[in-house]
User: What shape does this take?
Amino acid sequence: MTVPQADGLHPDIPEGVYHGDRESLSSSGARLLLATSPLEFRYQIDQPQKPKKVYDYGSACHKLVLGEGAQLEMLDPAIHGLTKDGEPSQKPTATTNWKQAERQARQAGKVPVAKWDMDKAEEMAAEVRRHPLAAALLDEGYAELSGWWTDPETGIRCRLRPDFLPIDRPRRRPLIVDYKTTDNANPAKFAKSMRDYGYHCQGDWYLDGFFIITGIDADFVLIAQSKTPPYPVSVHCIDPEDMVRAEGQNRRARRLYARCRETGKWPGYEELNILSLPTWLRKEIDLANVIEENTMEGELQ
Assistant: This one.
């Protein structure tokens, strides 16, 4: 399957096809572009993504929570973690059998997931289903739809892949729901994750693209879940003022991306920059200098 040429929402687009699109800009790409430089963005986009255990585990959680996503291949230490003598290994992931099973799974387009991680993902999915608000948001709808649209200002092609679009909301605005695994789902702590990973920009990107594709205004909701027991779940919307800020950030990213594509230049850090000490360190140094000066004056009197 190839990337759809027509703009719109498309079901059943494999993850590899969506993420392998090098001709459109995604929300994660826009955030990467603003957080680094065009040079680094272009390099990372052009490199094939290397498998990472954290991504594999995240794929398992998404699949079990949303019901859609990557194909999973569970690796069982009792089967794939045996030594050459057929005995269970104390380090099953280091055995030849395990590595071969991982390689075969990836060659088949599947995500290898260790049984202990699959068990955790199942417990996490069960906890989401027990959460009254999260369960209601994920009760019925469309998971992992892919969408493409053309930005009216710059003419560049953009894409989005929301985790879930609930249905059956008569007389209410549609919702776009995104599920995040996190170190801490406590709302006060998860707010830092939003700042670190730019979830407000992701929300605006999805809402903007959804409106251009469908002509319908929607709202954005985040479901956060801790990756450690008892896997608590929290549900969040984002302050409208911060969504306005995200709109400006996304606009800057699209303009920068369009300019780089038009010129064929993907610059790094080519301007002269002024470095400043952080405010707290300035105060610390200033205080130490004042104390030193006062001490010297006292000694001279």
Observations:
- The radius of gyration is 24 Å.
- The longest helix spans residues 240-263.
- The longest strand covers residues 175-182.
- The domain at 8-29+131-263 is CATH 3.90.320.10 (Lambda Exonuclease; Chain A).
